[in-house]
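> @MW can you paste both from yesterday?
MW: sure, first one:
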Amino acid sequence: MNLAPYLPPGVTPNLLVELAAGGANVVALFVLYRAFSPTEVIGARARSHAKRRRELRGAVLNAPRPSRRQKQVTLVRSLLEKLKLNRGEVRKSADLLAQAGFRSADAQTLFQGFRLGAPPVLGLVGWLITPLLVRHASPLIQCVGGLAGLGMGAYAPVMFVNNAATNRGQKIQKQLPDALDLFVICAEAGLGLDAAFLRVARETGASSPELSDELGLTAIELGFLPNRRDALNNLSRRVNLAAIRSFTNTLSQTEKYGTPLTQSLRVLSSEFRTERLMKAEEKAARLPATLTVPMICFILPPLFIVLIGPAIIQVMGVMSHH
């Protein structure tokens, strides 16, 4: 299909191909740079905690003062404010971003900007690339390609954040029983809740940066927020896991009713370890059924060839002599 009638003056299909190839090269170089560049996890976590500490200190000391977000209005933020998005949807996306580890002030704005800008951009890209991928593409097929890019742009940002939140939750879930054992040791040593959170966050920094980040942030909020239960609720909101909700509920009940913290945490840690062992046993039980198809496709044919192949060759040689 000839694209010349559909393109602006001076733009040729070869130019589009060169631009697409150049963009692909830039993306590939960026991915390689991010893959091989060292990540400063501890420094990023420290900067995040310091920023949260400054925000809470400003909220406590200067509550009537307008927020910094209203002073640093960008073009995307002003556009989003004019669109008047649903507050429930904004709150839900903010919780999802927090679960994925994106807690900066601009994370919500950038996410909503990508959600608004990705569909038309990818729809235009799909409409332009379809004739290059499908020879003699009709206008209907070209429109289908544009609609496919439009749908991909609508779901890609949400899928990316959901995937990041799921991976982060799995890492936290894996290290939570060990962190609870450290909490038990801290409680038996006589440390308070704030000091226990700080100590466990420091000890788990190397093995589980994600869990250490959340515990350190909770320790800061415990020291600044007027209600300690709000800090625990924020932890369960940022980490959407049933284990974290059980942990925060146990701490809240301990604060409210004065129940022994050590005994409650020990029972909770034992339950989490039992649950993790049951999940491992469940995966091990599914392993034979999972390996059935690979064995049939990749192991049995070579085995039959090795066992039956020589006999077939001998039979074919005897038949050729006769």
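MW: second:
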Amino acid sequence: MKLTKRLECIASLIEENTNVIDVGCDHALLDIYLTLNNKNKCIASDINENSLQSAIKNIKKYNLSDKIEVVISDGLSGIDILNNNTIVISGMGTSTILNIIKNSDVNKINNLIIQSNNDLSKLRKEIIKYGFYIDDELVVKDKNIYYVIIKFKKGFKKINKKDYYYGPILKTKNYSDFIEYLIDKNNKIINSLPKKKIIYKIKFLKINKYLKKINKKNY
């Protein structure tokens, strides 16, 4: 089966033979792919009953009804988190994602793979507070939209405060187009700010200086 570039990127970070809980599974395409190709045991979860009906239809199409469990749930509520697990949360905002983590048995989680639509600096900072470190980070451009996918693992690694914004792993990879996109985005914010917001302008100017430094280093 064919996945979108975003879902392919998420799948590439998931280890074989792990127990996967796909929160906000939508049509369960990721779960089907992982079951067929990665030997994962998947739980497809969503709060939206219509999405789950579509998921069930797709799962039946691939004759996987006995292998993929479908659960209607608000986040991880009511789901038993098994050992050797990977939790996937994608396509949501950071506040929603953090609320899901906050209301789960976070001590049972081994791996988190997250694709948030906003505020990645806050996401990194808060997830690390729960006793995780950033194991990998990928950027993918899908249908002209950039997505950042972050893999967190249970444990600790020291992180530079600046890396909350861009990421300790991303800065080691050559994503020059993405960095240029971020710089341009920040410049638009700087130009739109009124003169009295000088502190915010300085903040974004510093971020852009850091991004340019990373880009120059990786060329």
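> thanks! Residues 142 and 210 are 26 Å apart (CA to CA).
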